[in-house]
Structures are given as C-alpha cells and as structure tokens.
C-alpha cells in the first residue's frame, strides 16, 4: 500500500491537488490521476500540481502539471498562483519572488502585500509551429486569424501559445456560447496535433472582457489563467483591448497586463482548502 500527502487548493474555482515531492516519494500512473480527479468517486480536481527540485540553478523549484485525464502539460496559470501560496505558506521558501522551472521555460511568481500573486507567464508565441497548429496553406501559415472548419461551420480563431496551446474566439455573449459542443470539437481538431485549450471571449469594453474556457484534458473549468492571458493577448493584437484588462471568469476575476514584445503578467488570488492523505 502506498500513501501520498496532498493539499487541495484552488484559483478562482479552478481546483488542484498539490503534491510535495520534496519530502515524499511519488509514483503513480495516468489511471491513478483519472481516478483521483473524479468528482463523484475521487477527490475531484482539474489538475494535479507537483513540486520537485529543479536542476536549473536559477530556479527555486520545478513545477509539473497533470490534467484530470492524466496527461502531463506545460503550463497552468491558476496553478502557478497556488504553487506560490503553497511553497511560501508551507515553509518551503521565505522568498516573495519565486522562480520556477516548467516544461516550457521559467516563470516568476511574485507574492503581493495583499496576498494576491502576480505571475510573470513569459512571452506569448503565435507562429503555427509554436502553437502547434497545422496550417492548410501559405496564407493560413501567416494569418493573424485562422479559419477553422468544424462540422458545417467555419470559425475564426486566434492562436496563442502561453507555454501551452490556446485557440480563442470572439462571441456575442459568453452565457449562450456553445462552450461544450464547440470546445470538445476544437480541442480535438486534427489541425492541433497536441490538442488545444479553447477560449470564448466577449469584449465588454477595451479594458474588460467575459471569458469561458474549455480546457484540454478537463472540459470547461471555473477559470483558466493561461486562457485569460491568451484571450487578452489576442484582443490586444486585434486592437480591441488596452494593455491592462480585467477578465471576468465564471469563478472570479483576473487582471492581465501585456505590452507587445514583453512577458504577460497575470494577477489574482489563490486559496488552500484542506490537506489529506491518499492510499492506493
Ligand atoms: N487551468 C490552467 C491550464 C491547465 C492546463 C491546460 N488544461 C492544458 O492542457 O494546457 C490555467 O489556469 O492556466
């Protein structure tokens, strides 16, 4: 029998179990994660976050992320804020600016005086091969908006890699957007070889949007931090948004700041819920 200590946390309702691999051995399979993430028969969570030591001397920790379907992925913005809260409040560091290694580069977590966390999410990338996205032709290769054929519909999407892949579309009203049906179809669309997170954004003003995200490997979540960054970056590139935007997600609000050529900054809360022990 194996035991594993975990802490349940969330960022705006996007929920996680955080596992500290610095003080306990961790071994699991993708099937274990699927079982634990089940909301009826398991703990229930969107992502599992793992804290490891980093081999990179510039970094304080290594941050690994697994979706509810068991697959390891590159980035999780809401998780990054929870990671920062965990390592500071559980005494793993006394720094207020923490550098962590992720699968796709280094991100910086800054704890603010009011308890919120600002994450430097790094620079966004747009080239099809960086998403990754397979364009149909040369025009599609260079386009800022890609026309995606989904069943009988052609949907304009903006593609942004925020460490992980995002396709963002504009909608009239997020309340009535077909998030599940279109999200499922686009997540697994053959032009996205590593699948994709799908954002549905509604512009309220140049500094405020509503957003719902159908996450790769999970389904719709209460909030997606990287998705909020991707939606704001796409809106700024299309001239619809200013450099600081309040993003209203079903679980609450994030502030996203970006200037062309710079890193994206995401600010929001993180919360600890309880700790427990898994036996398997
Ligand atoms: N919830 C996240 C993103 C988690 C990973 C994503 N589902 C993927 O597969 O890339 C966030 O807050 O950024």
From TrEMBL:
The gene is dapF. The active site is at 76 (proton donor), 76, 224 (proton acceptor). Its EC number is 5.1.1.7. It comes from Vitreoscilla massiliensis. It is found in: Cytoplasm. It is an enzyme of class 5 (isomerase). The keyword Amino-acid biosynthesis applies. It catalyses: (2S,6S)-2,6-diaminopimelate = meso-2,6-diaminopimelate. Homodimer. The record marks 166, 215 as: Could be important to modulate the pK values of the two catalytic cysteine residues. This is Diaminopimelate epimerase. One of its GO terms (molecular function) is diaminopimelate epimerase activity. Pathway: Amino-acid biosynthesis; L-lysine biosynthesis via DAP pathway; DL-2,6-diaminopimelate from LL-2,6-diaminopimelate: step 1/1. Gene3D superfamilies: Diaminopimelate Epimerase, Chain A, domain 1 (3.10.310.10).
């Amino acid at each position: 029998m194996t035991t594993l200590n975990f802490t349940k946390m969330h960022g705006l309702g996007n929920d996680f179990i955080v596992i500290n691999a610095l003080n306990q051995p961790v071994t699991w399979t993708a099937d274990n994660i699927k079982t634990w993430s089940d909301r009826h028969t398991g703990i229930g969570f969107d992502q599992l976050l793992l804290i490891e030591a980093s081999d990179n001397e510039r970094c304080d920790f290594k941050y690994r992320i697994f979706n509810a379907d068991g697959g390891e992925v590159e980035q999780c913005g809401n998780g990054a804020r929870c990671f920062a809260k965990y390592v500071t409040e559980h005494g793993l560091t006394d720094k207020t600016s923490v550098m962590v290694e992720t699968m796709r580069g280094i991100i910086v977590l800054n704890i603010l005086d009011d308890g919120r966390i600002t994450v430097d999410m790094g620079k966004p990338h747009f080239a099809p091969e960086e998403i990754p996205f397979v364009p149909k032709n040369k025009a599609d290769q260079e386009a800022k908006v890609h026309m995606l054929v989904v069943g009988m519909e052609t949907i304009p999407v903006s593609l942004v890699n925020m460490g992980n892949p995002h396709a963002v579309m504009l909608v009239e009203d997020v309340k009535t957007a077909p998030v599940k049906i279109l999200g499922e179809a686009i997540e697994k669309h053959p032009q996205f070889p590593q699948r994709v997170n799908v954002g549905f954004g509604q512009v309220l003003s140049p500094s405020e949007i509503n957003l719902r995200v159908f996450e790769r490997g999970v389904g719709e979540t209460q909030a997606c931090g990287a998705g909020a960054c991707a939606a704001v970056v796409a809106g700024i590139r299309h001239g619809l948004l200013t450099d600081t935007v309040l993003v209203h997600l079903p679980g609450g609000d994030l502030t996203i700041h970006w200037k062309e050529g710079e890193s994206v900054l995401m600010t929001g809360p993180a919360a600890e819920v309880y700790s427990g022990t898994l036996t398997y």
